Every structure is written in C-alpha cells, then in structure tokens.
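ok so for the tutorial part 2 we go from a plain amino acid sequence to predicted structure tokens. step 1 is just haveing the sequence, like this:
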Amino acid sequence: MKPTSNSDEDVAAVLQSSESKKDSTSNEEGEEFLPGNEEPCSSSEEEKEDRKSQWRSKNGEILWCPTHEETLPYFPSSILTPGPTPYAIARISSPVSAFDLLFAEDLMQLIQHFTNLQGKRSIKDWKDVEEEELRAYMGLLILAGLYRSQHESTISLWDGVTGRVFFSATMAQKRFQQINQALRFDDRLSRSGGRENKLGPIKDLWSKWSSRLPKFFNPGRDICVDEQLVPFRGRCSFKQYMRLKPAKYGLKIWALCDVKTAYAWRLQLYTGRSESAKRQVSQGMQVVLDLTDGLKGHTVTMDNFFTSFPLAEELRKRKMALVGTLRINKPELPPQLLNIQHRELMSSVFAFSHNAALVSYVPKKSRNVLLLSTKHREPQVESSGKKKPQIILDYNKCKGAVDHLDQVCGNYSCRRRTRRWPMCLLYHMLDVSCYNAFVLFTAVDTEWNRGKGHIRRLYIDQVGRALIAPTMMKRNYLPRTPFALSLVLQAQGKEQQKQVKEEEQQEEQEEEQQEEEWESPSKKRMQCASCKQRKRIINNCSRCGAPVCKIHLKTLCALCYKK
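step 2 — the prediction. this is what the tokens look like for a chain of 563 residues:
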C-alpha cells in the first residue's frame, strides 16, 4: 500500500504547483491591465467596440456605420453617348420625318384597317379612310392643341367666322366627325382574353408604339422614374384616383425620362391588379426593374414609392446607381436616423454601408427627410444657406423630369373630351410623340430656328401643316368659306405649278433630243429654205428638217405646241 500513498502525494503536489502558477499568472495579468495603463485592447474588445459604433437596421439584416471609412468609392461603369441614335440621325431630315419615326406607317395601317372595319358596320354612308386622310385627321388634332382649341366643339372649329381656316380647308366637318366616331384599334368581335385582357381595345397599338420609343434616343447619365396621370373621368376598369395630381382621376402610367431633355424613353400603362392575382408586395421595385431593362451606367432618381435597399442592390448588379427618398416605415432604416426630438434644425445625420449612404435631414420642426443613395459615398453638406446634404441637392435637380414631360405635353395637348378611354390614350400618345420628335429633331438640326423662344410651337405647326398638306392638295370638293377656299386653291395651285414645270422640263429635253436628231451629221451651214437672200445657218425645223433662220423660226408655248 505504500507505493499508492506515495503516488497520491505526488499527484497532489503537482496539482498544487499548477494552481500556484495560475494564481501568479493571473496576478501578473491583473497588474498589466490596470485602468491607468495605456496598452492596446485585445482583438475581441475591439470587435465589441466596433459593434457598439455600428447601427443595426430595424429588420436586423443591415449594419450601418456613422462614418464613411469603410465605404467603397463609386465609379460610373461605362461611357455614355446621350442623344439620338445613328438609326434616327440617318432618317431625320425634316420636322415631320421625326414624327413619322414614332408614329410609323405600320401604326397608321393598323388604325386604318380597324377604323374602316368599324365604319362599315356602324355608319351608313361610310367611305373608307385612306392613310393620308388619317394622317390629316391627326394633323388637325395636333393643330387644335397648338391653337389651344382642343376643348372647342367641331361646329366652332369649322365655323366660317370663329373657326380656324385649316380645319375647313382640310376636310369637311361631317367627315371629321365620321372618322372620330369610327376610330378603332382592334376588332371587338374577335377580341380574346375576356375581362383579364383589360388593355385589349388598344393593346396592339400601345405595345408597338411604346416599343419604338427607346430605339431612337440614348438617355444621359441621369434618368428619372415617376408616375403620370392621363386625365379621364369616364368608365374604365383600371381608372385610378390620385389626390395629389391636378386631374385626380385618370389612367396611371409609369414613365422613365431623360433628366436633361425629358424624353419619354419608356412608358408602362398600369391596368390594376387582376381579380385572381395576389397583392404585389414589391410593386415599385418591379416597375423600376422593368423600365430600366437594357440600361447600364445610369443614375436613377425616384420618389419614396419605389426606393428600397433591395432595389438599390439589384440596380447595383446592373451597374446603375440609385438616388431616392425613403419612407419612415422601411425596415432597412436604423432607429438612430428616426429620432429627431433633440435634433437641431437644418442638421444632417449620415449612415453608411459598403455600397450605400443614408441621410436624415431636418428642414423644420417635426420634419424628417430620409434619402438613400448608392452614388454618394461621403457626408457632403453645403456650407451656406439651408445646409442641405449633397444627396438632397442632386435629388432636387433630377426628380422633376417626368413632371416636366407632363407640363410640356399639357401646354399644347391635343386631348379632346371623350367617354372612350382608348381615345384618351391615343391623344396622350400623340402628345408624347410630338414632344419626343421635337427633342430628336432639334438634337439633329441644332441650327433650326436657333435662339427663338417659341421654337417648340414652330415645330408643332410645321408637323401639323405637313400632315394635312397631301389631303388638302387632293381635295375634290372645295370649301365654301372664302379663306379656306383660297388656302386650298393656293395649295393646289402650287402643286399644279410643280406639275407644269416638270412637264416643261420634259418637253425641253424632248426638243433638244429632236434638234440633235435633225442636225446634219456634218454640221455644215446651209441656205435657209424661206429666205431668197443668201443665209447660211445650221438650225433645222423640228418637223420637216428643213434649214431655217431665226427670222422664220416661230416660238410656241406648251399648250399651243400640243395643238
């Protein structure tokens, strides 16, 4: 038993020595990290301090930092060439040619086909409308908007005293009303889809027209996404109410516009939620992704309906930046940006992630403005004035592109009163086409009426006149009013003068050819057949070929020459 006791004593001695060593090391460590010492902290304590300095979002998925030290710099991804595309530049030679790019021949033929189909069904004395006559109808609508007469009745527009000369000179009032009544964009009897096909009456025309807008223009670095409201108070299954819009009721359109020119690059009509579909949670995000499809290297400005952190990440994958306002209930916001009770007026608080920046700005008491940006990576604030952050300044510069489009289209809108929502949409298509064509033409021909303040009015006037001119020249039944009659005769007279000049040129060429044929091959001078005196000449009669001098040479006009 002695050996066992000795072994137990040895184990106890070893344990005691190890405990004494632990105590000594703990005492030494305690002496090294006294509060007065200035030695650096361990890595675990640094991580704890970093976590305390970071702000976690309300959903707990995003960490924000009050400084931008760890934020990556922003570099635009590609070099852009804004303006008309080479395809458009090669085909634009006049104001109306730019309009024809957007409202092309295939669109006119589609409207012509279904309008004639409806006219034969509903109007007794219907005469098929031709493409030139349909273009003249649209030209009259455009001119009515130019003269601010879109709300006048057709009786007033065609009146000999109060009306406009171009209307009665182009077509009869009854014919205009017939076309307006029969105008259709599809066949109602063969329409498919039922109630789910809400856009059926104008679906083909809208899809073809809207798909042409991006083909002719490259937007600049800054683009804007917002909503439009086309005024309409008639019956429509997807009519919307928007209390902040002047019209209140109408058709909602999502629009993407170039900030510099307000060119409508892509439009998407909102037809409402279908009865069988569930509510879409991220509708704003899907709208922006659809509108920006095919773009790269741009900065998208939007309001708080669209802006979200997941959308910013998706756009970043497409190499695009985002600048937009945020709603307070967004889950990606940290609580530190929402508390403004003890904040000073015109103060800004920033929060940064690796690829985004948040700012909270207090412009007045109890007012908190929140913005998200993936373009700005530094806490820049203007030094004077209201001390607005640079994010807000850039947002204010770019946010009004779609509103500017609404304004310029509304100044000379061709929109007339109607109870049919497809006609309301057609008027909007004409307004947008006129403005987009104006942007294209002035970008191609920069010297056209340069320096004039009413250049867009001049452009619309040129387009309207060019659309009605062919119909006016071919009109068989002349108008009764003297001014309209003189205008038609003047237009037709110019056309006749052109035809006479062309005929004269052809006759001159024929005479020259005949003279060359009757000239003698030796080209020797010969005696005049009608002169007794000796006269050596080289001219010959074009009919009999006899030599004749200038005295016996008779000059005839074109009509007498034919007789």
